[in-house]
């Protein structure tokens, strides 16, 4: 990640039927859908002066609850990059997705958006709070502990791997 920027990682489930071609990032279908989603994010944040970039980092296959397993949909992991000191990003996206069921003009499932500041998931923040609270009670024992049973520090391992590749 570039100095002076903050990244948000997440996933969103599209009302787009899954095609096996989405597994190949070089396929025409994958490139078109990637471009469409990235453009949708750019339109959403066009008036946000601290917006830097939106990147789709592949696709995963997902199912729709309460429907037959034959209905396969697209889950799109993404990275949004902003200049430091940006506010209201998660709220803006959540409001749009939950109220409209859309990401700009793209139909999405209303409760499918998962987003967190990179390295700051609710589980990691809770672990940090627990660690800070217990410092006074345990002295140097705090140095022996890691993030209190939070796997991977609360970061999605898939996104962490992708993010580490692009930040080199």
From TrEMBL:
Region of interest (Disordered), residue spans: 122-152
Instruction: List the Pfam families hit by this protein, alphabetically.
Output: SEA
Which InterPro entries would you find in this protein's record?
SEA_dom (IPR000082), SEA_dom_sf (IPR036364)
Limits of the SEA domain: 4-120
Gene3D superfamilies of this UniProt entry? SEA domain
Q: Where is the composition biased (Polar residues)?
A: 128-137
User: By what name is this protein known?
Assistant: SEA domain-containing protein
- Species in which this protein is naturally found: Desmophyllum pertusum
